[in-house]
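Next up, a specimen:

>
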Amino acid sequence: MSDELVFYTTPMSRGRIVRWMLEEVGAPYRAEILEFGRSTRSAEYLAVNPMGKVPAIRHGDTVVTETAAICAYLADAFPEAGLAPPHGSRARGPYYRWMFFAAGPVEAATTNKTLGVVVPDDPRMRGMVGYGSLATVVDALEGAVSGRDYICGDRFTAADVYVGAHLGWGMAFGTLEKRPAFEAYVARLNARPAAIRAREIDDRLLAERQAG
């Protein structure tokens, strides 16, 4: 059975998060660069992800979609990279907590802001919305990254890849306000060699596509 690691992406998508994660892992991988609405809707790719969305990975016979799930999977599949707290460690608690906080409340709240969806200021309505309010989400994030180098303390993990990418993207495009704690945290992460390599790869691919 082949253990080839295949990465399906486009250079301007959430695939940039997975590219960064793959560069942190350091294992060899093959990238399949797709086009929205064309190769992402091909029968071949729909067999990988019926949603026709990127990113996705295939590791041998295992297919993983959803960016947070891919980051968590890669951290466990390549433990030598040290990107997840050891199994059985209580540090897995905050690791999972903040990774999936970004995948749930942060993603939903910022998407709704972009779409102009406003949750009514009614406790009954807010109770139906998992994130409550964007302000509450932002305050919780600020508390999570303040007073520590990384979201799980003094150790960089896959949760930092996922949370840091959302913060960087949100501040760049105005869906998350810039706060000193966010800017310091993202700057620290963006200076990592793997983050720099990943950006350079995707920026080059994007420039080539735009030039073409």
About this structure: The first strand starts at residue 5 and ends at 9. The longest helix spans residues 92-115. The chain has a mean pLDDT of 94.
